[in-house]
């Protein structure tokens, strides 16, 4: 019987099973199936997926993200904050500022302490990618996809596409409580115009520095929060002249709030909490 120690953590309710590969081992060929198994709330632990904290030759630590369908993602904002908290509290890093390698590049993390524990983390998520080929999304030319007409399931929507290292498409609604998350989410996620799939966000603008936000995540479905999605939503809202650049913007997600700033240097800063739920041993 194979086993590994894990830590379950959440960031605004977006919860993952974290495995410290500095100490544990999971065979590469088992990763996708183990991610599916641990995520199952009935026969596993229950989570939105699995995140590995690995040694890195490019940064202080490396993060690998697996959705609950076993697919590997190139970035995860909520995961980065939890990885930063874990790395600091388990002495994988010695400073309050350090780097985390992801499949979409290196990010800078700053942990914020309260009674020597990490209660919030700021991640510099780097620059958004806006070109159709960078999202990626087929069927559009030019430098960006901003408020373009898109037809899904017979319905015409106006969407804005942004990559934060992973693909996002943002739609604006009048009332967030009526966002068609469960109906349109899965249809858009798997639309062939998104060759790598897509995370689907619905946003209700409240004012020029505040919005409501809900998400259907690629590979995980509806989650309580999506950090890269919140960043994409703020970038989209600036591009659509709905919010201001270089202004800390409050994103109200189902699980709580993030403060996102798309800075003049084009970097996106994300600040929010990270919480340890429990530690355990998983047998498979
Ligand atoms: N479902 C995402 C990965 C998790 C991202 C999200 N949980 C976040 O906090 O950014 C994808 O396949 O790109």
TrEMBL record:
GO biological process: lysine biosynthetic process via diaminopimelate
Compartment(s): Cytoplasm
InterPro entries, A to Z: DAP_epimerase_AS, DAP_epimerase_DapF
Gene Ontology MF: a single term: diaminopimelate epimerase activity
Pfam families: DAP_epimerase (PF01678)
Function field: Catalyzes the stereoinversion of LL-2,6-diaminopimelate (L,L-DAP) to meso-diaminopimelate (meso-DAP), a precursor of L-lysine and an essential component of the bacterial peptidoglycan.
Protein name: Diaminopimelate epimerase
Organism lineage string: Bacteria, Bacillati, Bacillota, Bacilli, Bacillales
